[in-house]
């Protein structure tokens, strides 16, 4: 089934509350997906700096990592450990080098996301517990996406949890299942795009990243996806400064959107939106099938 | 007027209370506050009572209704008035997917738009939509009437049996075996009656009628895939 929530803030005043608002929405969607939960938050942009969100089954792997990266790469990095995740703060121009170094120094550590502002936290377990472990209510940011997963296409693991991030500051969450993910995975592999898991959603995320690397805007990539991705899907996607929604042409996966002059919100059900400020006077609607909705800062 | 706070007292208590009303109850008017998108509000009612829901609902609002009039002052989620037998559901806002599905009787009024598969497999229910309906509406509709004051999406009336469809606006496409039909005086009369019952101000002369070409009723090898 899966539950999706998303929040794109139009005003700065709400930014300190982003994590709390998203957590509330996410917990409401627990009964749509009790297997795992994840959240992507787009935080403040610090000029010239970038972030890598890392995950390790054993957080002891993070011990001493910052110092070892500094020795290897000759750059100053900061590492903040939160439960099974850690966020590395580093110079933007060293992102690729540091990412490679992490892989070399700690082969068992996974990169959840990379980019200037994105942080992704995801784990198996109930959404409320996952949010608590990572202190998600305290996160600030301009927009964010959350997901509660009822696993259908691949195993219940941390890596199989959403959101999936396959490009800098990009992420995607999905309710539904794709029927052509295996053939698409092979096609993307021939284009040099590889994915880490057997999960259908990761293929969709990689497809959009590939389209954008080929020069498409996110809107164009989503339009192309309507033709190339077969199956049931409601996608909510994030970029550094954008937020998009698209449903397949049959559109049997539920979706509700709300917009005020303060925010745009998405929920699999209206229930997820009821605590948002000013929801009584918001424009509330169901996104049309095979139609791309997109907002940008 | 009885007021029921759904947030304070919970869904089970609401439905038990409403379902327990006798045919001769004096407590005929009920106000539900704080629905907050909850599922299955006012389902399985079987008494001539009037329930007003002050806000939007989730899945299956007023499902399996008999006799009761339910009025939602907001939007309804998927499956509103599913399998309704008699009575009414009036929605001031929009309805999500498959509103009025498999309804056997009664009247469903959606003042806003309805999403896809409105009236799927309807079996006698009357549905009046003030705005548009989405794709695959009235799919396999067997009996009853659907009135659409706005436009209809793709594949209207696909594999339709004997339900009658009236559309004022455009129809994006007709489904298999659904055709436009002549508007005879008895159809104008029925449409006038439905518009009046729904309280919708529209001229019956502006509507077109659609129904079954009856080509799928008998086995025909050309219809096999």
Automatic annotation (TrEMBL), chain A:
Keyword hit for S-adenosyl-L-methionine: no
Keywords: Glutamine amidotransferase, Transferase
Residue ranges annotated for the Glutamine amidotransferase type-2 domain, each copy included: 2-297
TM segment ranges: none
InterPro entries membership: GATase_2_dom, Ntn_hydrolases_N
PROSITE patterns, A to Z: GATASE_TYPE_2
Full protein name: Glutamine amidotransferase family protein
Automatic annotation (TrEMBL), chain B:
Coiled-coil annotated residue ranges, if any: none
InterPro entries: Glu_synth_asu_C_sf, Glu_synth_lsu_3
Top-level lineage group: Bacteria
Name of the protein described by the UniProt record: GXGXG domain-containing protein
């Amino acid at each position: 089934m899966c539950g999706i929530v998303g929040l794109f803030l139009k005003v700065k005043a709400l930014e300190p509350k982003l994590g709390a608002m998203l957590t509330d929405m996410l917990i409401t969607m627990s009964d749509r997906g009790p297997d795992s939960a994840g959240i992507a938050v787009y935080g403040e942009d610090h000029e010239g700096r970038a972030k890598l969100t890392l995950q390790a089954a054993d957080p002891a792997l993070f011990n001493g990592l910052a110092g070892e990266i500094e020795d290897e790469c000759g750059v100053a990095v900061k590492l903040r450990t939160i439960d099974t995740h850690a966020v590395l703060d580093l110079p933007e121009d060293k992102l690729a080098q540091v990412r490679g170094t992490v892989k070399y120094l700690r082969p068992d550590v996974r990169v959840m996301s990379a980019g200037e502002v994105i942080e992704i936290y995801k784990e198996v377990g109930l959404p409320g517990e996952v949010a608590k472990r990572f202190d998600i209510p305290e996160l600030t940011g301009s927009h964010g996406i959350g997901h509660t997963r009822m696993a259908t296409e691949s195993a219940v693991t941390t890596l199989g949890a959403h959101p999936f991030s396959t490009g800098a500051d990009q992420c995607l969450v999905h309710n539904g299942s794709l029927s052509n993910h295996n053939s698409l995975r092979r096609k993307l592999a021939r284009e040099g795009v590889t994915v880490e898991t057997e999960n259908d959603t990761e293929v969709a995320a990689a497809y959009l990243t590939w389209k954008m690397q080929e020069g498409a805007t996110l809107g164009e990539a989503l339009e192309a996806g309507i033709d190339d991705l077969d199956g049931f899907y409601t996608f909510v996607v994030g970029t550094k400064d954008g937020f998009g929604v698209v449903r397949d042409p049959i559109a049997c996966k539920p979706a509700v959107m709300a917009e005020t002059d303060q925010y745009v919100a998405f929920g699999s059900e209206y229930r997820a939106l009821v605590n948002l400020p000013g929801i009584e006077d918001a424009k509330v609607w169901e996104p049309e099938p095979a139609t791309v909705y997109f907002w940008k800062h | 007027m009885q007021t029921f706070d759904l947030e304070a007292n919970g869904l089970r208590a609401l439905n038990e209370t409403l379902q327990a009303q006798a045919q001769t109850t004096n407590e005929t008017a009920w106000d539900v506050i704080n629905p907050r998108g909850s599922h299955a509000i006012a389902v399985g009612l079987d008494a001539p009572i009037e329930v007003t829901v002050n806000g939007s609902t989730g899945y299956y609002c007023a499902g399996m209704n008999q006799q009761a009039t339910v009025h939602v002052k907001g939007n309804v989620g998927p499956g509103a008035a599913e399998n309704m037998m008699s009575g009414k559901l009036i929605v001031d806002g929009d309805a999500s997917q498959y509103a009025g599905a498999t309804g056997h009787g009664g009247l469903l009024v959606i003042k806003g738009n309805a999403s896809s598969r409105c009236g799927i497999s309807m079996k006698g229910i009357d549905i009046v939509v003030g705005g548009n309906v989405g794709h695959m509406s009235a799919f396999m509709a067997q009996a009853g009437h659907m009135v659409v004051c706005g436009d209809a999406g793709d594949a209207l009336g696909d594999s339709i049996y004997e339900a009658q469809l009236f559309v004022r606006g455009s129809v994006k496409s007709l489904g298999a075996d659904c055709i436009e039909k002549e508007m005879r005086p008895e159809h104008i009369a029925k449409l006038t009656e439905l518009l009046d019952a729904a309280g919708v101000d529209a001229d019956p002369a502006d509507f077109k009628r659609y129904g079954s070409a009856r080509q799928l009723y008998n086995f025909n090898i050309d219809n096999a895939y």
